[in-house]
C-alpha cells in the first residue's frame, strides 16, 4: 500500500491504537500488492481459483496488485465497505501501520500518514502487538514472511547463476505460474496422487515446499 510513512520505527510492544470509523477513504488510490497466500484467500472468498481471481481482479504491475476503479477505489470496495473483509490482504489489516522486514528477519513498524479526510483516529489504547491480534493478522504475517524468505533465496540463486541480465519474457511467465498457488499445488499433487487440502494454510505450506523443491532442482 503506497502511502507516506513517518520516519520513526516501532516494535510490537509500543503503545498504539487506531479507531476506524469506516469512512472508507483508506481503500482509495492504494497499490495493494498481493502474495500467493493473499490471492488464495481472496480467490476462495470469491469462489474462484487463484488463476481466475488473478485474471478478473488484479493487474501485473511491479508485482501483482488489486485493480482500481476509474475513481481510484479498490475493486473490492462495496457501498458498505470491504466486500472481502475476512480475507482482506495484510496491508489492509495493518493500516495505518506499515511493516518492514529485513532479510535477517528484523521487523519494524511505521505509522502511515492517513488520508487527509480520514475520520479514523489514533488512540493509545493498546500496543502494536495487540492491534495485530485484533486485526487477525498473524497468519498473513507468517505467509508474507515465508514468501519473502523464498524470494530472497530465489534472488540469491539468480545472482549466483549470473542469469539476472538474461531474464526473458518467458522466464517472467514461468515465474508468474510458479507463484500461482492452485496451479502449482494441483500439478505437484497430481503425479504422486497426494490429496489436495482445501485449507488455505495447508495449501500455503505445500506451495512453499514445492517452490523450494524447484529451487533445489534448479541448483542441482
Ligand atoms: S481489499 Fe478491502 S480493505 Fe483492502 S483496499 Fe480493498 S476494499 Fe479496502
Question: Topology of this protein?
Answer:
Blueprint (H helix, E strand, L loop, with lengths): L4 E6 L4 E5 L16 H11 L3 H8 E3 L3 E3 L10 E2 L2 E2 L7 H5 L2 E5 L5 E6 L8 E7 H7 L3 H24 L7 H10 L2 H10 L9 H20 L1
Antiparallel strand pairs: 1-8, 2-9, 3-4, 5-6, 7-8
Helix pairs in contact: 1-2, 5-8, 7-8
This protein binds iron/sulfur cluster.
The low-confidence runs, each spanning 5 or more residues with pLDDT under 50, are: none
What proportion strand? 15-25%
Q: Write the H/E string, N to C.
A: EEHHEEEEHEEEHHHHH
| Beginning-to-end CA distance, first to last residue | 37 Å
Q: How helix-rich are the residues, as a percent range?
A: 40-55%
Shape: globular
Mean pLDDT: 90
Number of helices: 8
**Distinct ligands, ions and cofactors found in the model:** iron/sulfur cluster
Class of secondary structure makeup: alpha+beta
- Counted up, domains total 2
Largest sheet descriptor: 3 strands, antiparallel
- The total beta strand count reads 9
Neighbour order of strands in the largest sheet: 1-8-7
**What is the radius of gyration?**
19 Å
Overview of the structural elements:
- The chain is an alpha+beta fold and 220 residues long.
- It has 2 domains: 5-136, no CATH class; 140-219, no CATH class.
- It has 8 helices and 9 strands.
- The chain has helices at 36-46, 50-57, 90-94, 128-134, 138-161, 169-178, 181-190, 200-219; strands at 5-10, 15-19, 58-60, 64-66, 77-78, 81-82, 97-101, 107-112, 121-127.
- Strand 5 (77-78) and strand 6 form a beta hairpin.
- Helix 1 crosses helix 2 (50-57), helix 5 (138-161) runs parallel beside helix 8 (200-219) and helix 7 (181-190) crosses helix 8 (200-219).
- It starts with a strand and ends with a helix.
- The mean pLDDT is 90.
- Iron/sulfur cluster binds next to loops.
Amino acid at each position: 500500500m503506497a502511502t507516506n510513512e513517518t520516519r520513526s520505527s516501532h516494535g510490537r510492544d509500543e503503545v498504539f491504537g487506531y479507531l476506524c470509523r469506516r469512512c472508507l477513504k483508506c481503500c482509495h488510490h492504494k497499490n495493494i500488492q498481493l502474495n500467493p497466500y493473499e490471492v488464495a484467500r481472496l480467490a476462495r472468498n470469491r469462489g474462484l481459483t487463484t488463476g481466475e481471481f488473478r485474471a478478473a481482479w488484479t493487474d501485473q504491475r511491479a508485482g501483482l496488485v488489486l485493480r482500481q476503479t476509474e475513481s481510484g477505489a479498490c475493486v473490492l470496495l462495496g457501498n458498505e465497505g470491504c466486500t472481502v473483509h475476512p480475507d482482506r490482504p495484510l496491508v489492509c489489516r495493518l493500516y495505518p501501520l506499515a511493516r518492514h522486514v529485513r532479510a535477517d528477519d528484523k521487523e519494524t513498524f511505521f505509522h502511515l500518514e492517513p488520508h487527509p479526510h480520514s475520520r479514523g483516529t489514533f488512540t493509545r489504547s493498546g500496543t502494536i502487538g495487540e492491534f495485530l491480534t485484533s486485526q487477525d493478522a498473524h497468519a498473513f504475517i507468517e505467509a508474507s514472511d515465508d514468501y519473502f524468505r523464498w524470494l530472497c533465496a530465489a534472488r540469491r540463486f539468480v545472482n549466483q547463476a549470473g542469469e539476472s541480465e538474461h531474464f526473458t519474457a518467458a522466464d517472467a511467465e514461468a515465474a508468474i505460474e510458479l507463484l500461482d498457488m492452485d496451479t502449482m499445488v494441483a500439478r505437484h499433487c497430481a503425479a504422486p496422487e497426494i490429496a489436495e487440502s482445501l485449507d488455505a494454510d495447508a495449501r500455503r505450506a505445500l506451495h512453499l515446499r514445492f517452490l523450494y523443491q524447484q529451487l533445489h532442482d534448479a541448483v542441482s
